Amino acid sequence: LSSDPLGTLRTEATLIGGAASQSVFNRWGDYSAMAVDPADDATFWYTNEYLSATNPWQTQIGAFTTNPENDDCTDAIPVAVDAITYWSNAGATGTDISSCAYNDTKDVWFLFTAPDTGVSVISLCDSTNFDSTLAVFDACGGMELACNDDACGAASFLEVPVAQGAAYYVRVAGYNTATGDFSLYIGPPQSPANDDCASAIA
Questions:
Q1: 106/132 Cα distance (integer angstroms)
Q2: How distant, in Å, are the alpha carbons of 28, 61, 106, 190 from that of 32?
């Protein structure tokens, strides 16, 4: 992943250990293949040959899933204000920490810095294909400032007060472990309609 240290591979894992060796066949690995699962675009299915103690040729099938680079709050991806970007929470892990949803553990994180003081709109409404949840925090492990589930159909939308120069952490997840693709829009901070005395609300 892009968040891994440069020049470092993750710990090797064994799908199945061979129990013998072969020196008879001059062809080996003909039936080796890997493919991405179209269900989530994050799971890799792999098959290969191996030798067992009782049969000279066996086939094993296995799968592994990659986690998004922003799977943890500390790896939140910086995003621009007033722009729509497109993402996925496929392969995400996490814990249910939001106040407005149920079992929304498959979370990914984003970070933005408020360019002004006011109220920012954060929306997943443009193009989201699963039952999403949305929350904003003032820090990793910090206070939840706003939370929403299903403001626009099964997608999410919220408004949150922000202060110029402050950083905010946006958490996108899926209701009851749902995953899929989503759009993310963070609007520029706007002043309240009654910000001035002349605009006082009757």
A1: 10
A2: 9, 10, 31, 56
